Amino acid sequence: LYSITQKTMLGTVTRVAPAQKHVWQRKSNTSASRARRLVVKASVTQETVEEAKTRLLKLGAISCRGSEATTTQMAEASELVAELGEIGCSDSAYLDGSWLLVMSSTKAFRSSPFFWAVGEMMGDMANFFYEAHEHQTSLFGGGIGEVVQTIDLANEELLSDCVVKASLGVPLIGWAPVVSGSGRVKTSASVRIVDETSLACTVKNTALDGGPEAIAPALNGTVVPVSDAMSAINSGAVPEVVFETKFADDQLRISQLPDGAWFVYVRQ
Q1: Global confidence as pTM
Q2: What are the beta bridge partners of residue 149?
């Protein structure tokens, strides 16, 4: 694990994010292991699942989706994620629909497949990129708002919709920004089902939709061909990232990236 200490309005908190460690393990698919899982699932009551869900959602609410979670809170959330991951069902077909991010072990903007591809390309250097991006977007009161994923398996597409508030100002001269605005960053990716637990994702492009409050309205509708750019700098290859998903029920899912970072979503 690695930790990051931050000063927030609630005081100094330490965020813990997993490094190369999965909160649940991929299960064997032998007949014996399937039989054992049936016994375990039979002993799990709906009340157990609901209690874990309720506590996890509360932790997400009081910690700003995990961004201001204390070490204790993040440890508890990780335990709940592991518990739901072990007892939850696996069916990629449930992924269809729109999902709102409510809790994460990492930065909220990493819900976007753009950052999945960046992480795959940069490896151990990716954390530096994530920190730099967070610093840039948080200046003068900026930050990440609502984060939604919409998955359409029939058309093999995933759309990430992230609200970003950005501000521009002059450090040391004043606390208020010179200009500020908000908008949506929409990233599309192609997806394919790998198995009942996993989906493979390849980023395609990113579009800017700033709306009336955009800092630069002229950029609204601009589409950036991310896949072309990544292919150009990555020897012609666009990274394909496989993420795993477990469902507590048809309303809550937990997805996990190869580096162990996890995200909790509720269906919209």
Answers
A1: 0.78
A2: 99, 160
